[in-house]
């Protein structure tokens, strides 16, 4: 009798669980909240942490993600979940899906635009002409433009036969002005015109 009673209890519990799933006709809900709750997001990153919440009247069993540019996986957590998603340059449509015990699903989509990072600052090439025959070197001067002023200072010297020089020590966020003069026996001659970037 005890064995039969135990078996009946187990069967009753199993049947009860099955009926619970069978009665679950509601789809889960899911919302992306990280990095934004908006439908679109722009970044220069090569991967992005995405997270959010999911709810169901019985229970969420898993949350998955898929990127139209490649890659898919299962998020960590269920009611509160997150996933690190690799990105490609251009438009990445990331679909996150909540699944409940009855295999009902609901999705939320985040469209991520990956912009190429700005290129590193390129060198500035100076070119000039000189018809004179006297002098020892050209002295090149430079200043960094600010809202108030642009104080010139010696930058480098190059031989009198040179007609070009490349400045590689530049910053992307700065603009510069240049001028040069001929130095003869240590004496600085007249300055050229001033040219500024960009």
Could you please describe the fold and organization of this structure?
With 198 residues, the chain is mostly beta strands. It has two domains: 25-114, Immunoglobulin-like; 124-192, Immunoglobulin-like. It has one helix and 15 strands, in the order H-E-E-E-E-E-E-E-E-E-E-E-E-E-E-E. Strand 7 (90-100) and strand 8 form a beta hairpin. The protein is rod-shaped. The model is unreliable at 1-17 (pLDDT under 50).
Key attributes of the depicted protein:
11% helix; Immunoglobulin-like; 198 residues; 1 helix; mainly beta; rod-shaped; 5-stranded mixed beta sheet; disordered N terminus; 2 domains
The rounded distance between the terminal residues' Cα atoms is 94 Å
Give me the strand/helix succession: HEEEEEEEEEEEEEEE
* CATH class descriptor of the largest domain: Mainly Beta
What is the total tally of β strands? Answer: 15
CATH superfamily of the largest domain: Immunoglobulins
Overall body shape: rod-shaped
Integer tally of domains: 2
Describe the largest sheet: 5 strands, mixed
As a percent range, the share of helical residues equals: 10-25%
Radius of gyration: 34 Å
Give the rounded overall mean pLDDT: 86
Beta-strand percent range: over 45%
Q: Trace the largest sheet across and list its strands.
A: 2-8-7-4-5
Q: Spans of 5+ residues with little confidence (pLDDT < 50)?
A: 1-17
Total helical segments: 1
- The third-level CATH topology of the largest domain is Immunoglobulin-like
CATH architecture of the largest domain: Sandwich
Structural class: mainly beta
